[in-house]
Design a protein that fits this description.
Structural class: mainly alpha
Shape: elongated
Helix content: 55-70%
């Protein structure tokens, strides 16, 4: 049997391991030395007073530089966690996050302000801002160019917006934001009713007449006195008719005729031509937000 001497191979492996260790050590040395080659990043706000931090952040917010404003407000709150500037930093950070399309951060900041300063004279604005964030959450830039149909969106945000505005109007009936909040609540209520009607119509068009009737009833029960009620009654009538529930169909038709005698579903007169596809079913669902803000800038509370 021929035997091979493994001694040379062991020597090679040993030399390889030594070389590898030296290479790693050299790379680490270069890395450490390289760090010193880069200039140290300096914090431009180091040593700034609370007043200077706030004024700079506030100016950035007014100029529309929301990312810079958010960063400075966060620094202000971290360095000076007590006092009026910290309180204002949370509010204005919430506003800046909202305008910067950082909706989750905006809501989190508003909630933090409400929890921390429940008796603050501007806490009503925190509730109002929450409602605004959810009200326009999924519209983004295009929403400011063309008012999107809220009835087409996920109702979760509409419900959250409605809840925030309702809490504001309940807790602060005399707030300068309450009238606008109430108008937006009516708008949202009408939008949610239209959403439910469209779901019912979806079921009807696919032959799910029981589901369509149930959703149409939901519109009438949960959203009374909204622009979608006559549509829901007509859809309820047609669903019952397809199910051969003659008495229920006749009752629904009679209620529609008596309650909405001028409705297109009674008169047969269309409110728009077939080719006017760009027109909404309801122009803002019968109400418009007032758009009224504070008589003075909301951030001037001192």
């Amino acid at each position: 049997m021929v035997r091979f001497d493994s001694t040379p191979w062991r020597a090679v492996r040993t030399r390889f391991h030594v070389a590898a260790r030296l290479a790693v050590a050299t790379l680490l040395a270069f890395a450490v030395a390289g760090c010193s080659l880069f200039p140290e990043v300096k914090d431009e706000t180091a040593g700034w007073s609370a007043d200077r931090l706030y004024q700079t952040a506030h100016d950035a917010m007014l100029q529309g530089n929301y990312q810079r404003a958010i960063k400075l407000f966060d620094q202000l709150e971290a360095r000076y966690p007590y006092g009026r500037y910290a309180q204002q930093a949370i509010l204005e950070s919430a506003y800046s996050n909202w305008r910067g399309n950082e909706t989750e951060a905006a809501v989190a900041a508003a909630d933090r302000f409400i929890r921390t300063y429940p008796n603050h004279p501007n806490v009503d604005y925190a509730y109002y801002l929450k409602g605004l964030v959810y009200f326009r959450e999924d519209q983004g830039l295009i929403g400011y160019v063309y008012e999107l149909d809220l009835s087409e969106r996920d109702p979760k945000e509409m419900r959250s917006s409605f809840a925030a505005f309702k809490e504001l109007s309940t807790k602060f009936p005399d707030s300068q934001y309450t009238q606008d909040a109430l108008a937006r609540m009516r708008y949202l209520n009408n939008a949610m009713a239209t959403y439910e009607y469209k779901v019912a119509r979806y079921y009807f068009n696919r032959g799910a007449y029981v589901a369509a009737a149930n959703r149409a009833q939901g519109v009438l029960v949960n959203f009374p006195q909204t622009p979608a009620n006559d549509k829901a009654l007509d859809l309820l009538y047609r669903s019952y008719a397809r199910l051969d529930l003659t008495q229920l169909a006749d009752d629904s038709k009679a209620i529609l005729v008596k309650t909405f005698p001028e409705s297109p579903y009674v008169t047969g007169v269309k409110d728009r031509e077939w080719w006017e596809f760009w027109k909404k079913d309801e122009a803002s669902f019968g109400v418009e937000p007032t758009g009224q803000w504070a008589e003075r800038p909301w951030w001037q509370f001192w």
